[in-house]
What we know:
Layout: E1 4-12, E2 15-18, H1 22-35, E3 39-44, H2 46-54, H3 56-64, E4 67-70, H4 73-81, H5 92-106, E5 109-114, H6 119-130, E6 135-140, H7 149-159, E7 163-167, H8 172-184, E8 188-191, H9 195-200, H10 208-212, H11 216-223, H12 228-231, H13 234-247, E9 251-257
Parallel strand pairs: 3-4, 3-8, 5-6, 5-7, 7-8
Antiparallel strand pairs: 1-2, 1-9
Helix pairs in contact: 1-5, 2-3, 7-8
Amino acid sequence: xxxxxxxxxxxxxxxxxxxxxxxxxxxxxxxxxxxxxxxxxxxxxxxxxxxxxxxxxxxxxxxxxxxxxxxxxxxxxxxxxxxxxxxxxxxxxxxxxxxxxxxxxxxxxxxxxxxxxxxxxxxxxxxxxxxxxxxxxxxxxxxxxxxxxxxxxxxxxxxxxxxxxxxxxxxxxxxxxxxxxxxxxxxxxxxxxxxxxxxxxxxxxxxxxxxxxxxxxxxxxxxxxxxxxxxxxxxxxxxxxxxxxxxxxxxxxxxxxx
Length: 258
């Protein structure tokens, strides 16, 4: 018998985001893994949503993924404005850390794909120090180019992971997973952006007090000033969310079955 989970999802400028907290996320990921069927997870923030408004392929990918996590304080703000506040912010970095601990306890195997050469390997070493029983069956930088896809898919398939974390940045990572999901034979595939950089120490995450105040974006902008171009779309995001509110924001119950 199928185990059916019911989640509320809210559409923000055409992109659906599930109302879920950290523990529910892990519970659902366990269900995905144990099903043996391929599933895709995306971490949605305002930059995702604005990019999807300009990129029809990316929008379609986000509509097809099995779980869209509410990442980014802007997404939480949008939920409140639309009258459907989210339970919690579920970030990619924190989810990967929790998922690593869960995988170590349950014997689930991980493959880390993407980031700059050597970064995934370093991130895996840090994870292994924190969770000695964690099975990391492969790390590889590669690229999201179409030319490399067949070789990378075969590399991943050969190691038979339960979880594939892909760090090519959005939207490349999410499109890559969607194109190859049926061929990878991996139950849980998740785009994780800069997570390997943070875990490996290549990038420094904001202090906890800034995270709690929702100011991680400010810390990252300070350390990576080039991101201002991407963040410049945030005022437009706010205006459009307010416009959606005036038109009547919607939410619905989503049934996620294994």
